[in-house]
Amino acid sequence: MKKKYRFFLNPYRNMAFTKCPKCDGKTKVRKFCLMIHCGPPKPRPGQRIQLLSLNKSCKFCPYCELIIAKKAELEEVLQPMFSQMGIPFSAENYFVMGTMSREDWKQNQKEPLEIKEAIKRIAVFRDVWDFEVRPAGWYFEDEN
Question: Mean of the per-residue pLDDT values for the chain?
């Protein structure tokens, strides 16, 4: 399975990450075909795996190859889709597993791929990062 990009699901509503939280370089806005696993993280035996492809604008640091997707925006789109699929929506019932090439995504929109074929075409994330934001302000020297 090929690995590509790093990923950060931004939980902060008021943080846009115009600068990369890792290298401090300017981020760009790019569209990515995100592949999302829908349903419980450990499906029961016989339970069908649900994959969802979503063409989404995200912040992107080309130097770190880091994709930053806003959690609130993602969940706003996912919630109605989950109800349509009959899956209860919660933050534990989905995870973004990787990306798909634009060509494969377009082909999947015209004629849905078999689940095994779709999984073969996914580029999973190299790493999933998490960042804690420290609000700007005055702090004592001994505080981290």
Answer: 87
One-character DSSP codes across the chain: --B--EEEEE--TT---SB-TTT-PBPEEEEEEEEEEES-SSPPTTPPPEEEEEEEEEEEETTTTEEEEEHHHHHHHHHHHHHHHT----GGGEEEEEEE-HHHHHHHHHSPPPHHHHHHH-EE-SEE-------SS---TT--
pLDDT tens digits for range 77-92: 999 988 887 777 888 8
Instruction: Say whether pTM exceeds 0.90.
Output: no
